[in-house]
Amino acid sequence: MNTYEVRITTRTQVVIAEFAFFISEVREAPMNASYWLDRVESELLSLKSMPHRFGFTQENHFRDYEIRAMPIGNYIALFTIDEESEKVWVIGFRHGHQQARSQGLPESKPID
Predict the structure, then answer these.
(1) Which of 16, 24, 34, 83 is deepest in the core (most CB within 10 A)?
(2) Which pTM value belongs to this model?
(3) Strand positions, DSSP E, 11-96
């Protein structure tokens, strides 16, 4: 069984931080935001092993590389697997109620 390195694109880090800010400041729940952020980080790091356990997402139709979806509570992390470098790239993050879209997704699979 392969162990993958998990990488998160800068754009995705910003989106996750924006959701955490919303929970903390707009919803006035800083403790919930902290708990939520810890959970997101933990779930994303779990992609180190068996990332193929998650299926393809609707966004998969927008790009020439595979995009998979990992549900995290009410949110969805979008990621792609680079078998050659044994890396999982988290390339998007959205609320589950948001429609699938290509905005913000890399045009091609991320590489180092």
Answers:
(1) 16
(2) 0.94
(3) 68-72, 75-82, 87-95
